[in-house]
Design goal:
Largest sheet: 4 strands, mixed
Distance between the termini: 66 Å
Number of domains: 2
Order of helices and strands: HEEEEEEEEEE
Structural class: mainly beta
Low-confidence stretches: 1-26
Mean pLDDT: 80
CATH topology of the largest domain: Immunoglobulin-like
CATH architecture of the largest domain: Sandwich
Strand order of the largest sheet: 5-6-2-10
Shape: elongated
Helix content: under 10%
CATH superfamily of the largest domain: Immunoglobulins
Length: 131
């Protein structure tokens, strides 16, 4: 019982300000609590029709492919209405789709304000020009 109470108090008290318990210290990794980035929801639209872009989209930041996933389950051949990414950081993302010019958007996905928890969710939109 005492161990469970201590663990609960440590979880609440231990996760104070992000990144420090003293000068130049960063002990977030040793606090035993989970930390996750927020989720970005990106809408990729056809610049002419203002409808979601159909087909296979690729999302890259430099040489790295980013693991965006469709925000909902869609039937084959149906355009994904929005794409989501939970990956902390700032990126210039190139979005490519068949029969469209590649578009670029700068995104920022933040982590939690404190050591423990989830970062804020955000949204963005990008229009691709058909070829």
């Amino acid at each position: 019982m005492r161990a469970a109470l201590f663990a609960c108090l440590f979880a609440v008290v231990g996760c104070g300000e992000h990144g420090s318990s003293g000068p130049d210290a960063d002990d977030c990794g040793e606090r035993g609590c989970a930390s996750f980035p927020g989720t970005l929801t990106l809408t990729v639209l056809d610049a002419t029709t203002n409808q979601p872009v159909a087909g296979t989209l690729t999302f890259t930041a430099g040489p790295q492919t980013l693991p965006f996933v469709c925000s909902v389950v869609v039937d084959p051949g149906v355009a994904c209405p929005a794409w989501q990414l939970s990956y902390e950081g700032a990126f210039d993302v190139d979005v490519a789709a068949p029969n469209y010019q590649t578009g670029t958007i700068h995104i920022l996905i933040e982590g939690p304000a404190q050591c423990c928890g989830v970062g804020p969710n955000s949204s963005a939109s990008l229009s691709l020009t058909p070829l």
